[in-house]
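2024-03-11 09:14:02 INFO worker-7 job=invfold-0412 stage=load source=structure_tokens
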């Protein structure tokens, strides 16, 4: 909004009510301290001619001012000093006035020496001719049309140097308070001596017409001023270029560490836009309040703002990374902003305070820069809280950034410990972190202010420079009497403030006259002699506008257009945001705010008449259910629309019942259904049948059924079937063929697929991990033409009572679960990595969750936390064991027991373990963020307690108590969740049924099969109804959000006791 007025508030032309744009130069008009041993280059004397207040452009005043000018300089009519070029310079007798020819011969246009002089006067608009003034029909038009007129020495007669106390409208001068006639001469100039002598005689000649200040017409007080117009040098350019390059490198390196591959360009554009908006908005505000920013090179302004802005930007991004990705967008952005906003405000206030203090001590040009930087810091914080926060929210919501955040380089917690000063300094001292950019931004800001101040006083010694900073700029100017005679005439602008305006193009033009090879000059400026016409009314009747005149012109002529454009921009942004989030809006994603429940339940009813016995879930959120009524339904969980039916309960040759297993491929396209005699394929997207496959199970139960790898020339991935007798059959659906392989000679009790990346080979690792009744463990890997099975030999594994294996595909590891120990094994060489001690564990109840993040210095990945979850064999509790590194920023090196020498790694032996028990868990599952969610019936009695404090197993897992008269059979069911130990969320429960949700449900004593859906949802059957529980807010269902190394074993099963129902999984 504040960027639109810039073209109307700034000008690169002559001063006409607008503010000056910064140059590629250092410009300033500054007083030099008293006692300076500097010989001035020129002297400046002037007279100010006043009439009534702000009526200096009246004809009679102009004519009277011409008389005063001629008295001081001699006749100036048709002033053409070039005509005396060939006149020999000669001095008259002392006390005798110079003739016109003698005077013009000393003019600077005729050659520069120590006797040269020149002047500028508003009367030169009329060639100093009284007749021209009297016949001029429009004085104001002449003044505005001739503002670019030059004198004989090419000094432009800008309004700023020939008038004082100007009033502008429509970029045109409409009034002035004083006519300023200025004489500039070198030290031996006879014209200067004549001016001084004749000024002392004027009171006797004109006192009847003028009030003169000082009354004797002699100006004795003076001040040394330095006027600079120093173009930016190659050295300055090189320093600024290096600063920009270093800042850009820091920015890009910091951005690359975020691993936000899809959002890098967008974040760069957003940051650059925020800096541009902050700079332009600050320019607008400074222009409105008449703050002159033209004294510092324009290239410096964005750099300082950028250096101070990056700290807040990256602090906010890192805080978003710290938030759990399973939370809603609103929660993530709100929590991150809440953690960082107080630091950003404190840092900004600190810098603003420092800048305001510095602005009182430094020179005017640097003071304006300090005020600009202070305003820019405020705007930067504003745009960070609005513009950048909104763009970041859109990026997260569209998952362009959330993919990277889910694999971020920080631990999932909300403790905000990265921002605690004590922890930061500890890390700095340990060499694990660099100094905060909060310090760096302040250092850069203060450094540039000092460099800029030194630039204006580069001839000074260090002592003088520091003493000037200590005294402040105000001490450099003469401290006149608090009561001045000029106070009674109410000047619209004081001589000192008027003088500070003469530091731009005029200074450059004068430098080119008196010191052509220099970039500055020193002038001894005498106090002006003020003439006030008698009978003038010097009382201000109208208050002069305090803000920039161009602002009022903008309001008068551009406000309507500005409002229309503003409304159009707001509407366009709204439409663009709606377009970017159209998928979210169609799915009601915009309503998953902080007010939404963290435990949400959806019920899918009407698809089955009898109990649902089997479920399978796809990566995109589709859920397939098989019921006792011989109906197979496909539910669309993301859109919550009515399902479509694959088989409607009638006898069908396409799908022979009973259904033994189902699985869905990684692309959510193909559904494979296993029956005793064949395998049928269903295309979920096209809703057509695929080629059938014949199968002979030979009376053996299937232990695993999943899709394997795809051939480059095949549209349907291979299917893998593992039977209980240890036989693996691999099917190629399009060829209609299958091949058998033996992987274990003993009956199998647990089979899990492991599909991941090899560390040393390009081909993906496809393996099957098995556990048998004898306790042996085998790993069968897919080779080019066959499967190669290998026994996993670990010391003492035969006595562990192995009952389950759990793959950790993305790590290239797998777990072997025994009765009270869990072995972590490397898939590459089958070596033992570590052994975890557990409490006695129920059969096949183990689940695992973990979170990895990269170690930027080596490219390796480590664990930020690792969770094991299982059902206690004795207590029936859900036991959660979580392992974290001892150092807050450390990582667990999980690949082997040999830890890298680099800092930041820890071994499994040094991890910290936390353990908790969850009583009466019912049926439960571990989600991707380590959160545990379960469904249970409320306990109806107080559990017994043994002497060791543990609950008795009797009754603890008994979730089918005897019915009591009038008992609510639906109201006793509830959902519970327990967050991962690194999160600040508390345990939560809610009823499974709302008051209006009970219709259409069958009464059951146990829930049916449970499968994982998406990142933080589980689906299960309650009789004939499929229910979806989502933890932590809104769930996204997208194929690319689910790692292909995740769960591939979605085998449905008939309803079992809760202790055997739990499906072990490993999620990344």
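2024-03-11 09:14:09 INFO worker-7 stage=emit residues=1068
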């Amino acid at each position: 909004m504040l960027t639109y007025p810039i073209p109307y508030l700034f000008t690169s032309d002559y001063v006409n009510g607008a503010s000056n744009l910064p140059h590629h130069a250092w410009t300033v008009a500054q007083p030099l301290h008293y006692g300076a041993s500097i010989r001035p280059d020129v002297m400046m004397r002037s007279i100010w001619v006043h009439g009534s207040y702000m009526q200096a452009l009246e004809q009679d005043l102009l004519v009277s001012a011409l008389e005063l000018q001629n008295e001081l300089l001699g006749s100036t009519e048709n002033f053409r000093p070039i005509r005396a070029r060939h006149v020999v310079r000669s001095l008259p007798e002392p006390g005798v006035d110079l003739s016109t020819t003698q005077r013009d011969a000393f003019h600077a246009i005729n050659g520069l020496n120590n006797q040269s002089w020149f002047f500028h006067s508003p009367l030169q608009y009329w060639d100093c001719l009284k007749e021209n003034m009297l016949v001029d029909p429009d004085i104001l038009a002449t003044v505005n049309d001739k503002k670019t007129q030059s004198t004989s020495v090419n000094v432009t007669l800008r309004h700023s140097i020939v008038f004082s106390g100007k009033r502008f409208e429509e970029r045109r001068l409409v009034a002035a308070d004083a006519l300023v006639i200025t004489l500039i001469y070198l030290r031996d100039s006879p014209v200067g001596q004549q001016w001084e002598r004749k000024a002392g005689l004027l009171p006797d000649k004109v006192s009847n017409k003028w009030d003169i200040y000082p009354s004797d017409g002699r100006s004795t007080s003076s001040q040394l001023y330095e006027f600079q117009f120093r173009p930016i040098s190659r050295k300055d350019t090189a320093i600024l270029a290096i600063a920009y390059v270093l800042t850009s490198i820091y920015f890009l390196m910091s951005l690359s560490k975020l691993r936000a591959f899809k959002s890098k360009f967008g974040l760069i554009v957003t940051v650059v836009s925020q800096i541009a908006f902050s700079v332009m908005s600050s320019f607008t505000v400074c222009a409105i309040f008449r703050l002159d920013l033209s004294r510092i090179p324009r290239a410096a302004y964005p750099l300082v703002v950028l250096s101070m802005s990056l700290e807040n930007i990256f602090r906010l991004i890192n805080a978003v990374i710290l938030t759990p990705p399973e939370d809603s967008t609103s929660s993530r952005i709100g929590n991150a902003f809440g953690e960082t906003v107080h630091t950003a405000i404190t840092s900004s206030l600190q810098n603003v305070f420092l800048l305001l203090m510095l602005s009182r001590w430094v020179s005017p040009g640097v003071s304006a820069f300090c005020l600009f930087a202070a305003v820019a810091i405020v705007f930067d914080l504003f745009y960070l809280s609005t513009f950048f926060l909104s763009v970041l929210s859109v990026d997260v919501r569209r998952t362009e950034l959330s993919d990277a955040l889910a694999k971020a380089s920080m631990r999932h917690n909300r403790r905000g410990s990265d921002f605690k000063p004590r922890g930061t300094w500890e890390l700095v001292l340990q060499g694990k972190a660099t100094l905060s950019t909060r310090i760096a931004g302040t250092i850069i800001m203060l450094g540039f202010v000092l460099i800029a101040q030194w630039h204006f006083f580069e001839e000074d010694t260090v002592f003088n420079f520091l003493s000037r900073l200590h005294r402040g700029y105000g001490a450099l100017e003469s401290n006149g009497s608090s009561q001045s005679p000029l106070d009674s005439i109410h000047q619209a602008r004081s001589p000192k403030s008027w003088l500070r305006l003469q530091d731009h193009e005029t200074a450059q033009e004068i430098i080119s006259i008196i010191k052509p090879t220099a970039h500055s000059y020193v002038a001894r400026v005498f106090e002006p002699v003020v003439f006030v016409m008698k009978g003038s009314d010097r009382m201000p009747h109208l208050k002069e506008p305090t803000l920039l005149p161009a602002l009022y012109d903008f309001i008068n002529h551009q406000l309507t257009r500005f409002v229309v454009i503003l409304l159009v921009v707001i509407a366009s942004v709204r439409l663009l945001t709606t377009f970017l989030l159209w998928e979210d809006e169609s799915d009601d994603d915009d309503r998953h705010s902080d007010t939404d429940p963290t435990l949400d339940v959806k019920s899918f009813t009407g698809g089955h008449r009898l109990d649902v016995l089997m479920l399978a879930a796809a990566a995109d959120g589709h859920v397939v259910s098989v019921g006792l009524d011989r109906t197979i339904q496909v539910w669309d969980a993301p859109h919550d629309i009515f399902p479509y039916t694959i088989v409607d309960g009638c006898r069908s040759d396409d799908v022979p019942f009973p259904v033994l297993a189902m699985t869905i491929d990684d692309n959510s396209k193909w559904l494979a259904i296993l029956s005793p005699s064949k395998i049928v394929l269903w295309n979920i997207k096209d809703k057509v049948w695929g080629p059938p496959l014949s199968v002979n199970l030979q009376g053996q139960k299937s232990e695993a059924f999943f899709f394997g790898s795809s051939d480059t020339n095949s549209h349907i991935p291979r299917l893998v079937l593992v039977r209980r007798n240890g036989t693996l059959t691999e099917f190629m659906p399009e060829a209609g063929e299958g091949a058998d392989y033996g992987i274990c000679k003993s009956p199998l009790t647990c089979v899990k697929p492991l599909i991941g990346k090899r560390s040393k080979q390009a081909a993906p690792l496809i393996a099957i991990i098995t556990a048998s009744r004898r306790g042996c463990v085998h790993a069968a890997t897919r080779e080019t033409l066959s499967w190669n099975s290998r026994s996993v030999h670990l010391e003492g594994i035969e006595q562990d009572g192995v009952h389950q294996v759990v793959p950790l595909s993305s790590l290239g590891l797998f777990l072997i679960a025994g009765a009270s120990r869990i072995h972590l094994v490397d898939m590459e060489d089958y070596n033992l990595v570590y052994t975890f001690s557990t409490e006695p564990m129920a059969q096949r109840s183990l689940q695992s969750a973990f979170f990895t993040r990269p170690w930027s210095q080596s490219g390796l990945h480590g664990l930020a936390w690792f969770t094991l979850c299982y059902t206690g064999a004795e207590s029936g509790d859900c036991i959660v064991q979580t392992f974290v590194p001892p150092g807050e920023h450390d990582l667990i090196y999980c690949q082997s027991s040999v830890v890298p020498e680099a800092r930041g790694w820890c071994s499994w032996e040094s991890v910290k373990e936390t353990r908790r028990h969850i009583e009466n868990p019912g049926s439960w599952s571990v989600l991707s963020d380590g959160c545990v969610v379960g469904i249970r019936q409320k306990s109806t009695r107080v559990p017994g307690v043994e002497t060791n404090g543990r609950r008795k197993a009797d009754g603890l897992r008994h979730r089918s108590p005897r019915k009591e008269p009038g008992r609510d059979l639906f109201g006793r069911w509830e959902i519970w969740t327990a967050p991962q130990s690194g999160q600040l969320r508390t345990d939560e429960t809610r009823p499974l049924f709302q008051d209006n949700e009970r219709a259409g449900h069958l009464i059951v004593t146990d829930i049916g099969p449970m499968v994982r859906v998406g990142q933080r949802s589980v689906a299960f059957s309650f009789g004939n109804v499929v229910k979806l529980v989502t933890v932590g807010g809104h769930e996204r269902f997208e194929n690319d959000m689910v790692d292909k190394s995740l769960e591939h074993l979605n085998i449905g099963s008939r309803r079992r006791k809760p202790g055997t129902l739990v499906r072990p999984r490993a999620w990344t």
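2024-03-11 09:14:09 INFO worker-7 stage=report msg="The CA atoms of residues 704 and 722 lie 5 Å apart."
2024-03-11 09:14:10 INFO worker-7 job finished
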